[in-house]
Design a protein that fits this description.
single chain, 67 residues, alpha+beta, four-stranded antiparallel β-sheet, 4 strands, globular
Amino acid sequence: MTTHEFFVDMTCEGCSGAVTRVLKKLDVKFDIDLPNKKVFIESDKDTDVLLETLKKTGKTVTYIGLK
């Protein structure tokens, strides 16, 4: 499994809740770092799939790279 790091412009628990909801549908292992606005996703799925899924939250999302 590969761990991908993303910047997601989250400001509150509601934002991280939205991220949790969309990622649970993908069935991937993930960790949210709300203070640093980062999401770490452990998955072999294509980066574009992960990025598009995170964008469904309506937040600004940037792929940082592999961790």
